[in-house]
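Sequence, structure tokens quoted for completeness.
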Amino acid sequence: MCENRGISLFRANALYLLAAAGLVILDLAAALLSSVRGLNTTVASAMLSVGYYALFLGAPVLLGAARRDQGLDGLRLLPIPLSRALLIALLAAATLILVSIVSMWFLALVEAVGGVPYETALPMPASRAGIAGMVLQIAVLPGIFEELLFRGALLRAWEKRGGGYAVAVTTLLFAALHGTILGLPSQLISGAIMALLVLRLNSLYASMIFHTVYNGLNYGIALYAQSLLTPAESEAVAAMSTVESLGGAFGLLTLVPSMLLFALLTYFLYRACVRWGYPVLQSATRRTPMDWKTLAVLISALVTCAVYYVLDGIAIFGG
């Protein structure tokens, strides 16, 4: 396992701030393009996604890594065996099912405290080219470029303060950048697993495979489920609360055995993936406080993310 002499915490936080600022620019660009008549919105959305991931996540991380002594090895771009990759894909599938069940409980909790979850259905293009474009935006681009930032640069920088600490912080930063309250179960559970995979296997490809399979399966299942319903049935389901869609409170309780089963399956698949892997090391020295510049950059990024959470909360709870 290569010695951690990589990116500084200041540079890593600056990359995170750049990603957060990129979201603002992306939204402004999307709003501007939406006013252009005759524009193919699907193509425009795809181009914006490619531009965001390449310019605000991928390029800054890769260029920064190439300038350091360790080069791309500092990002843990190290190969893993095919058998391990297949196990990671299975782990991603099990985690997706677990997250889906946990999300049902989370949505029911949001509704119980007065929230009205908005429709989160993904676009379902009719053509194969449109579907391929959505898979690119939803699975491939995040699976590569988000991992370069979060489990590449950020995990490497925060790892100097301890492996467990790095897993917790980067998972929270990962969830924060997404800016969605309803997506928290998915982001927190999958984010922690991906960080642990990278630390234990010393390869960023582990989280890239997990992320791409997880998002791709999520979209594929949604696409298939929507194809089974007529437009009228889709509207009827969308009008129901989570508890109503499950047939009442008893239906929600019946999810508990499945949740426990897939939690165990996820755990055992994770253990199989990291068997003979590296331990998650804790910091042997006392953590020193961040200097004011590093802290200021991090706070600026979190404030930007917080704005999205406030807007999301207003959409759910009616402000």
